Predict the 3D structure of the following.
Amino acid sequence: MRIEILTIGTELLLGFTLDSNGAELGRALADTGMKVVRRTSVGDDPDAIRDAVRQALDRTGMVIATGGLGPTADDVTKRVVAELFEMPLEFRPEIWEALVARFARMGRVPAERNRGQAEVPLGATVLTNRWGTAPGLWLESRLGAAILLPGVPSEMRGLLAHEVLPRLAARVDKLVVRSKTLRTTGVPESTLAERLGQVEELLEPLSLAYLPSTAGVDLRLTAWNLPTDEADRRLTDGLRLLRARAGEGVYGEGDDDLAAVVLARAGELGLHLMTAESCTGGAVGERLTSIPGSSAVFVGGIIAYDDRVKREMLGVPADLISAGGAVSEAVARAMASGGAERLGAELAIAVTGIAGPAGGSAEKPVGLVYIATAVEGDIVAHRYQFPGNRQEIRARASQAALYRLLQHLTRKRPG
């Protein structure tokens, strides 16, 4: 079945909000067996919404839209689509009572304008929203089918999984569009392509995409219009082939986070980790502590931005800084050694560098970063020259630091 995605909201057009709903809808619909043929965004304008819905229905007969179901003046989607389908709005007391009860559980009373959320197009199927106040709607007529979901991502996600996808799955042929991803870091895209060679011929009928970012290169395999079992089997075999050819640099699959992989490996070994950061300003620690349960491994970090802090809190000898500057391999090693000792950790990550845009020189240009990792007293250091702006350099340095510790752990503790 063919379907189009329509995301509604002026904030999307102005760039204040990223269209995460459109991305999630695309993945979920394809996995169910729907063929997404177009994705469109429009502002909170009645004419634009009406035209987008009508055109989508003309092309495919089915559209799923998010946004514009709330209680404020700019939430016009429901009214516009109801008019298009010639389904007048009717007040549903049971929806209002459920909304009042939801507000009461939060210790609040709904405003009068919330009553509009209890109005639904006559003849539409109401999709119960257990995650918010605006119900989803499924309208069908000679025009086709329009599925309206709230724009709040958590509400959209809940309604999609529990109300929409089961209904769609009952309508479609059992052919799916499904993807799996292999995650790599520390290997340039061109080098990775050389390692893989003419692998696409061996992967047919799967397609392979290279997705580079500051975190590395993701390799995405996609199975198109295959039975579920065959798609899963081919994708599993394909990832195994890619992993074997990609070699060093592979750290996970799907949505695996490198920080989570590092924490898991350290936890398996019963080791504890600290960070000593200068140019990354705590970014490595922030990534680690974003992982639930990280306190079992991560003991803490020291942001040693000033040389005095490097000396007094990490024990970096003053003569090392004087001899080669704060951005040097010797200082990175001393930061890792001193940090591990001060915080009583068996593992340490140390980062010092020049993130820019100022502060560089001919000898030490912007993007120069030294990373040192310590594993039970054994210290390994690496020199990098990262491209990009300040934010990109810091992101690349954080990713490289985590990967270098993972490599160090693997070498130090085989298996």
Notes: The CA atoms of residues 14 and 43 lie 9 Å apart. The first strand starts at residue 2 and ends at 8. The chain has three domains: 2-169, 175-253, 258-412.
